[in-house]
Amino acid sequence: MNTVVDLDQVSRTFPGTPPVEALKPTNLTIHTGQYIAIVGPSGSGKSTMLHLLGLLDSPTSGTYYLDDIDTSTLSEKERAGVRSSRIGFVFQSFHLLQHRTTVENVMLAEVYRPGSSSGRETRAIEALEQVGLGHRLDVSPATLSGGERQRVAIARALVSKPSLLLADEPTGNLDTATGEQILALFDQLHQDGLTLAVITHDDEVSARAQRRVRIRDGIVKAEDDNDGGLRPSGSRVVR
Amino acid sequence: MTIIPGPGLPFPEDNPDDSDTPNNAPSVIKAAPEPPDKLPRSGLSVRDLFNEMTLALTARPARTILTAMGTVLGVAALVATLGLAKTAGNQIVTRFDELAATKVTVEPNQSFRQAPGGATSAIPWDAGDRLERLNGVRAAGTKSDVDVSGQLARSVPVIDPLGQTEFQVPVIAVSPGLFQSARSTLYTGRFFDEGHDERADPVAILGPAAAERLNVSRVDNNPAIFIGDQSFAVIGILATTQREPALLNSIVIPNGLARERYSLEVPSEVLIDVEIGATEQIRIQSATALSPNQPEALRSTASAPPSRVRGDVQNDLNALFLVLGAVSLLVGTIGIANVTLVSVLERTGEIGLRRALGATRRHIAVQFLSESVALGAFAGLVGTSLGILCVVIVSANEQWTPVLDPWLPFAAPVLGAITGLLAGTYPAWKAASTEPIAALRGLR
After folding, report:
1. Which residues of A touch B365 (CB under 8 A)?
2. What is the pLDDT of residues B9-26, one digit of tens each?
3. Contact with chain B for residue A154, Cβ under 8 A
4. Chain A window 9-28: which residues touch B at a Cβ cutoff of 8 Å?
5. Domain end marker among B302, B319, B336
6. Do B84 and B112 fall into the same domain?
């Protein structure tokens, strides 16, 4: 079985008096093609988990393997490169640039990837077609509805062919009906074989996922976990 | 449709979690080429950097232009000040330079005590010939005021009771070379030459003012003038002279004639026209050439070097406006820094997004710096153009020739870019140290 994410005794402590242990030592495996929801109230350690999974922060202890790459050994450029090519981010507030068209917004995903300039626009258009926005290529995000904006953001995450799609409260800014459309799109992507991790506090959102893990006070607990994604500590097989 | 996993990860053939994955994938997005066997590294090509910078600056054109305004004015003020000072200085210097920088005069040293029984002056009659043999001398001639004992000059030997026909006109004796060294031009007729000088021919050249008073306007009818009862044939009338303006109002006669008729003993002055840059050398050499035994008996003078004259003129003109230009440039720098800082705060979400999309801190810093440098360079370019335009308009108005240092149009946009660099450093650092997730969560 292939794993995309493998956290081995990963913890994160923020220095201070007293130091804050935002994430207690955690083991978590996400297999290829899984759709996992990470749920928890605010202040539970969700953001820390998002930082760590998204390679935007490094663990205080433990090792994070992404696609079997030991990310603790990477230089900043390599971490950014892995982030760019293996992780697609989707945010609550979309983060589209207002002064650029939808295609340009999607093309932004490849700006930090050397040698990607040829065919960049074609790939961006294909990604937009994949999320059903092939007819709104050259419009400003300001003219799009909330659901359409989030779909542009998903297209931007997909264009890099990620191993992992990390979504942070993806429906938080949308009404129920539009949120449902986005979740349906996630279901479709999951069926197509994409690995998804959705971080949310919303039970309706997490209910769509194959697996759920709950974070509370920095401790990760399995819920609806039928494949042993949470292992006893130290059980990782060294490859 | 199937998402192909990144390199290094085999496609899942037997994955229990993926039992619902369709086997016949309808379409596949081609991934951007990545070097195999190597981890992808984040990078930002110059072309993409330029593209991002242009898009960022043109996203809000009005703000960009207003931000640049302070630097535009600062650079324009500096360029206009330097250009106008150079232009004005050049007007003064070209008029003054050409004449002053090529003139050397030799006179007897008043403070030198003559040896008993020696000559009364060390200047020889053939001073012109001697000096013209020196390298760097274009022309040289002697000049002496002639004492005619108060005799009046007239052009006709008749007494007209109704009008004044006799005048007190100064008489000057010169060697033929003086006309060249004084850069005199003729209105009509000719100059006298060595022959007239040697033979002491009774000839005279009139300055234009003297010719008018004596009522002589042409020489083809061989007019004559009289000083006292001595007659002189007028062979030429001067038009202009660049040096020795006294010639314009005088009767000019050859040295030989002055020696014979008025007992002129020695020339009183030598005027030398030298090549540009040779004044100092000729000033030193001329005394020795004219009086090898007693060079200290003569005093040579040359005007101040032109560079010093130019420096004095420009320093006075420049100081105030340079200070003004520097102040407005400083204000412009603060303006760019301020607006860039505000835009960093506004674009926090964008910074977080870029970090998430694979930008390193360095990429973020470079992007913001490139924006402020480009803005500064653009402002410098516009400011330079305005400054030069200002110089041209003022010059046209004053009928001056606009003069600019050739480095100025190139240096000024660079100055603008440096302004942008200084202004952008702190905001770029601030942008680079933005925490990505906080940025992504906090702002839209």
Report:
1. none
2. 343 333 343 333 344 434
3. no
4. none
5. B302
6. no
Same domain (yes/no): B127, B227? yes
- Contact of A77 with chain B, judged by CB distance below 8 Å, is answered with yes
B197 contact partners, CB below 8 Å, separation of at least 6 = B175, B176, B254, B255, B256, B257
Query: Mind listing the pLDDT tens digit for each residue in B322-367?
Result: 788 888 889 889 988 998 899 898 888 899 999 999 999 999 999 9
- ∠ CA(B162), CA(B163), CA(B167), 5° rounding? 145
Are B109 and B89 in a shared domain? no
The two tokens of residue B133 are 């043999």
CB within 8 Å: A31 and B22: no
Q: Is A200 on the interface with B (CB under 8 A)?
A: no
Of B239, B271, B302, which residue constitutes the final position of a domain?
B302
User: If DSSP codes are grouped into helix, strand and coil, which group holds residue B252?
Assistant: strand
Q: Is A101 on the interface with B (CB under 8 A)?
A: no
Asked if the structure places residue B18 within a domain, the reply is no
Q: Does B61 share its domain with B163?
A: no
Percent of chain B with pLDDT over 70: 81
Is the pLDDT score of A41 beyond 60? yes
pLDDT tens digits, one per residue of B188-219: 999 999 899 999 899 999 999 999 888 888 88
Of residues B331, B325, B270, the one with CA closest to residue B302 = B270
ipTM of the complex: 0.89
Question: For A3-223, CATH number?
Answer: 3.40.50.300
Q: Do B6 and A85 touch (CB under 8 A)?
A: yes
Which residues are registered as beta bridge partners of B154?
A: B226
Nearest CB to B358 within list A32, A83, A163: A83
